[in-house]
Each structure stands twice: as structure tokens, then as C-alpha cells.
Design brief:
About 30% of the residues lie in helices and about 20% in strands. It is of the alpha+beta class.
Length: about 650
């Protein structure tokens, strides 16, 4: 296994359709794609095994320069290849349409467009199903159509390029593109039993250009609803689009990231499957999107949680599959090398069975925020919320695994206790606001009891700051979230000291670590980027804007050239680490950006105005001249496949 062949995580771009997603490298290769859902086994998985994972590559034959950018207000990726003889663009997207929540196209489209002169490009389609274990049978099923079938997966591959079999399991083509010409390639997921019936539709390729225009309209219509201060920058809109792309449209679930097992340390074992919906990440996401004027996502996730828990608070768990399935058994896929030798590669996530007490407060916080927008809870949903408050009261005194899902012994995490307090506090507030039936006297007594415990055992009496867990003097970046649920104000003296202590003791090269304590796993991870944005937001709300801006800009610089963030950053190797792109990092970025640009701590955006992204776009079906907005990358050398 040659670790040098794996591109950096930052080399990838995201495309998706709110059902599934793919990662496209700078060199024009789709190295990760799961169909038909985010959590389906991969059909292209070279990201996790360079030899056996499979890929879909469109690459120039000559050495060239590369620029890439998203079309403004969209998830359509444009990669521009420039060499002496000519220039061409590669346009990548998943086809979107109105009504796609129920009837998605499940179609990945790649358009090669000549810009100047002539250019030769090589096309390789190497599907490998079920995480590289199945080499599908590929055969021609029409003049320009091929089908690939294996197990329970079927792909329809078609387009203008003269695709030809390359052995029994691969396809290849050579494309000569001149200025003004276009070549379309498409891949569509179809159930194996329906492949032949779909072939006739694929033979008519004229629809692909229409799908481009329809997809562009869909994303721009969605982005036009964003409301935030223009001074916050176009990165807010880009992050919001990423968060939308991580939403599973049929159920309202929101995944943490579209990948599995990208490591927190290169070559290490902290590799997890993030293609599931965590209550925590999802509540943060819907709060952020709602603050940007997008309420439908909040309501969709509320309903998803209620359905997934079957309306019973006792059955609530910290994460679910995108269809609400509870079982997410963690399995190690021993046949895969992992990104740059980072093993094990995992499918599923055992954290679903952990007790994490913050989940109670998160669900009540979501409902409180919903009610603040003038939407009272229905009677049946209130019964569900009452049950969650009762569960928080019954279990708050128990140790848990905490927000970081530690795999050592449970602890009495202060953040978890505060979130139990928040569950009771928001439950009381909802009952009082809407005259809902509840044992308010007992709830108030429990709320006071939890506060006393936190204020007596969760504060370092010498330094006067909150601590990671009862009986400890260690720090935890999750403490920065305490004011967000109104346990104390941001400018409370204890929070001021906590922010100072975290900045002093968890800082590494200008970024903030999660913690420094043992967690039951091998040592070694990058800096958790969301924590730096949390501290920036906290400091901004405390009026310490200069330091907040410094932290914000330091963390923002860790994105890739497209403005995408991973989970972590390795300050020594200067590279992104962890699953990518990471929703939690993007929403923390948005919250910090808005805090620095006028949003008060209650989450309402001050000075609303239409979202404005940089760049321009022709109104018709052509791409227009976007070279000025593309980032210039290193030279691409086709003989090595490396920059």
C-alpha cells in the first residue's frame, strides 16, 4: 500500500442531492460515492482503498493547471483544466428537481466543456460495490449505455463519450474536446431488477443539459431564502448549502458527514462512521438553518426524532440511521486499507448504545427554539417532551459518556449536567407559556437541585471556572456551550474565566483542542475545529471581539480552497483530518460568523438582508466565465496522477 497515492482530504469537493453524496478530487476523480443513500455501501471507494475501492475519473492527458469553484449559490462543482493546447471545464453535480424528496433522480452528471483550443481527456469508470468487495458485471445494453450489476446494487452508465469495456468490470473512453463543444457522462442508480427498463430513457441523452439547468435553479431557489447580514461573508451561504446537502430529504434526518473512517490521526485508529443522524449535531444544524430563515428543516428533524423514538422518551438514543433505524452495529471492514493506512475502517457506529445525557436538553432546546418562532407544540408532541423532561430528572445524577462519546469509564460531565438542567428549564418554560399540563412544582425543585450540583461540584474553586467533570480540574471545550442554553449569561464571571482558561490551556498553534484528558482510545488526534469557532463565538458575545476575530480567522484558514471544513486539523502536518465535510464544523463557523457580525446571543439575526454570494452566473444554461472566482491549484501530472 502506497500511502503517497492517497490525496489529502482537502483535495476533495462535495456534490450531493439530499439523498446521497460523492467526493470529487482535484484531479477530476470521484473517489467516494454511496448510492442510493448516504449510509449505503460504497460503489466508488478509492478514498479508503486505492487498489480495490473503485473510482470514476475524468482526467486530462497533458500536464495542466487546475482551478475549481462551486457555481455561486449551488452545489455544482466546476473544475477547469488549462494546458498549452487548450482549456476545458469539468462540471459535476447530482441532478435535483422539484419533488425530489420522494422521487429523486439518483443521477450523477459530469459535463466536459471545451473553453479554448483542444484537449484530450481520459475517462475511467471502475465501479466496486459493497466497499470494494464486489466487482460488478458490466455489459452493454444499448448503443451508448452500459449496466453494472452486483449484489443488490445496479448502475446505469451512459453519455456522449464512446465508452468501451476495459475487461469485464471497467469502462474507459478517450475524449477530444474543442472550444464550444460539450460531452455528457451520467451515472444513475437503478435497482438491479429495473436496469433493463431504464435503458431506453438513458439512450435519450438530451435531458442531461436540462437537468443541469434544473439543478442550478433548485439550488439557487433554496439559497435565495437565506437571510443573514451581508457583512458575515459568502462563507455563511456556502456552509448553509453544505448543511442542506447533509440532510436526508425523505425523513428530515441530518447526517454528521458523508464519509466513514477518515482518521483523526493519519495512520491512527480513531476512525468512525459519521453517515448517521446525531441528535446533537442535528439540533445545532436546524438551529443554525432556522436562524438563517429556513424553518422547514427544523420541523422535519423534530418529526424525525419523534418518529425514531416512537414517541417514547425512554427509547431515545443519541444517533439514528437516516431512515430512523435504531440499530447501527459497528463492524470493522478488514479488507480495506483505510486512508493512508488508517485502520480499522468501520461501518456502523457503536456510540448509538451509549448514554449521553445531553440528548435530553437538546430535544427540549429544539422545541423551545421552535416555539420562539411562534409555533406551539401539539398535544401529542408535548406528551413526548414531558417524558424527556422526566427522563432527565430521573437520570441526571448518573455518569455518562458525554458530548465526545468517550470509550473509557463514564464521568459526571458538567456539560451533560447543564443539558439535563436545560431539559427541565425549557420544559417549565414551555408549560408556562402555553398552559400545558406538567408537575411544575416538582420540576422546579429538580431544576434547582441540578443547578446546586453544578455550582458546587462543577466549578474549580481556586480559579473560579467551570471544569470538565465533577471532582476534576481539567477543561473541556464543550463548556463553551453552557451559555447557549441560558444556564449562565456569556458575561457571567465564571464564563469569562472559563473562556480564558480554555484559551490558555487548550490552545495549540492558535486553535483549540477538545480536551487533554484520557478517553479510552490511543493518543493522537488533530485540533477539533468546531471548538475554535465555539470559543470565537463565546468571546464575541462577551464583547472581546479582537480575540474572537483572531480565533475565527485562524480556524477559517483551515478550510480547503472551496471553503469546506473537515472535523479536525493537524497543526504539524498542516492538513485536514477526520470525516469530510463535517457538518458540526460548518455550523460552528456560521454561528461564530454571525456572532461577529451582529447576531445577539439569543440566536436571532440582527440586520437581516438577502444572502449575497460572491461571483456571478449567467441566467441561461451556459456556465459563463467564472475563471476569476476559481482557485489556482498546483500542476496536474497525468503520468503520476499527482499534483
Amino acid at each position: 500500500m502506497d500511502r503517497k497515492r492517497y490525496p489529502p482530504i482537502a483535495d476533495y469537493a462535495l456534490i450531493g442531492d439530499c439523498h446521497s453524496a460523492a467526493l470529487v478530487s482535484r484531479s477530476g476523480s470521484i473517489d467516494w460515492c454511496c448510492l442510493p443513500r448516504f449510509d449505503s455501501p460504497s460503489c466508488f471507494g478509492r478514498l479508503l482503498d486505492w487498489r480495490h475501492g473503485g473510482y470514476f475519473e475524468v482526467a486530462p492527458r497533458a500536464q495542466c493547471r487546475v482551478r475549481r469553484a462551486y457555481l455561486p449559490d449551488s452545489l455544482i462543482l466546476v473544475t477547469t483544466f488549462t494546458c498549452r493546447a487548450g482549456e476545458a471545464r469539468l462540471i459535476d453535480f447530482f441532478a435535483m428537481r422539484t419533488g425530489g424528496r420522494i422521487h429523486p433522480r439518483r443521477e450523477l452528471v459530469r459535463i466536459i466543456e471545451g473553453v479554448r483550443g483542444r484537449m484530450r481527456l481520459a475517462v475511467r469508470i471502475v465501479p466496486r460495490f459493497d466497499y470494494g468487495e464486489v466487482r460488478p458485471w458490466i455489459r452493454r445494453d444499448g448503443p451508448a449505455t452500459f449496466i453494472a450489476a452486483g449484489g443488490n446494487t445496479g448502475l446505469l452508465m451512459f453519455g456522449d463519450a464512446a465508452l468501451e469495456p476495459d475487461g469485464a468490470h471497467d469502462l474507459r473512453a478517450e475524449v477530444q474536446i474543442a472550444s464550444g463543444e460539450r460531452v455528457h457522462l451520467a451515472l444513475q442508480y437503478v435497482a438491479p431488477e429495473d436496469l433493463h427498463a431504464a435503458t431506453a430513457r438513458a439512450e435519450d441523452r438530451s435531458h442531461l443539459a436540462a437537468h443541469y439547468e434544473e439543478t442550478l435553479r433548485w439550488w439557487r431557489d433554496w439559497a435565495s431564502k437565506l437571510v443573514y447580514p451581508k457583512s458575515a461573508g459568502a462563507g455563511v451561504a456556502r456552509s448553509a448549502i453544505v448543511l442542506k446537502a447533509l440532510t436526508y430529504a425523505p425523513t428530515g434526518a441530518i447526517i454528521a458527514a458523508p464519509t466513514t473512517s477518515l482518521p483523526e490521526q493519519a495512520g491512527g485508529a480513531r476512525n468512525w462512521d459519521y453517515r448517521f443522524s446525531w441528535i446533537r449535531d442535528s439540533v445545532f444544524t436546524v438551529h443554525t438553518l432556522s436562524g438563517l430563515g429556513l424553518g422547514a428543516e427544523a420541523d422535519g428533524f423534530r418529526r424525525f426524532i419523534q418518529r425514531s423514538a416512537a414517541g417514547n422518551a425512554e427509547d431515545l438514543q443519541v444517533l439514528y440511521a437516516v431512515d430512523g433505524r435504531r440499530r447501527t452495529v459497528e463492524i470493522e471492514l478488514d479488507h480495506l486499507d483505510g486512508w493512508r493506512g488508517s485502520r480499522p475502517v468501520r461501518f456502523g457506529n457503536g456510540a448509538a448504545r451509549q448514554y449521553q445525557a445531553d440528548m435530553f436538553g437538546l430535544v427540549l432546546e429544539l422545541s423551545w427554539r421552535w416555539s420562539e418562532r411562534g409555533r406551539p407544540e401539539a398535544e401529542d408532541y408535548w406528551l413526548f417532551l414531558r417524558g424527556i423532561v422526566e427522563a432527565a430528572i430521573a437520570k441526571w445524577h448518573l455518569p455518562d459518556r458525554g458530548i465526545w462519546e468517550i470509550r473509557s469509564r463514564p464521568r459526571h460531565f458538567v456539560h451533560s449536567k447543564v443539558m439535563c438542567w436545560a431539559a427541565v428549564n425549557r420544559g417549565i418554560a414551555l408549560a408556562e407559556r402555553y398552559a400545558l399540563p406538567a408537575p411544575l412544582g416538582r420540576w422546579r425543585q429538580a431544576r434547582a437541585e441540578i443547578r446546586r450540583a453544578v455550582e458546587s461540584r462543577g466549578i474549580d474553586r481556586t480559579r473560579g471556572n467551570f471544569v470538565e467533570s465533577f471532582g476534576s480540574t481539567a477543561l473541556d471545550a464543550a463548556l463553551l456551550l453552557i451559555p447557549s442554553v441560558d444556564f449562565v449569561p456569556y458575561d457571567d464571571e465564571r464564563m469569562l474565566r472559563t473562556a480564558d482558561a480554555i484559551h490558555r490551556e487548550l490552545r495549540q498553534d492558535g486553535l483549540i483542542l477538545r480536551y487533554r484528558t484520557a478517553d479510552g482510545l490511543p493518543k493522537g488526534e488533530g485540533v477539533f475545529l468546531a471548538c475554535t469557532f465555539w470559543l470565537a463565538e463565546c468571546l464575541a458575545h462577551q464583547g472581546r471581539r479582537e480575540r474572537a476575530r483572531e480565533l475565527f480567522e485562524r480556524a477559517s484558514a483551515c478550510s480547503n480552497d472551496l471553503g469546506l471544513f473537515a472535523e479536525e486539523f493537524d497543526v504539524r502536518a498542516k492538513q485536514l483530518l477526520g470525516n469530510f465535510p463535517q457538518g458540526l464544523t460548518h455550523l460552528a463557523y456560521v454561528s461564530a460568523a454571525l456572532a461577529l457580525n451582529g447576531r445577539p446571543p439569543d440566536g436571532r439575526t440582527s440586520g437581516p438582508g438577502p444572502a449575497q454570494a460572491s461571483g456571478s452566473l449567467d441566467s441561461g444554461g451556459t456556465i459563463g466565465e467564472i475563471n476569476a472566482s476559481c482557485t489556482v491549484l498546483d500542476a496536474w501530472t497525468p503520468s503520476t496522477g499527482k499534483f
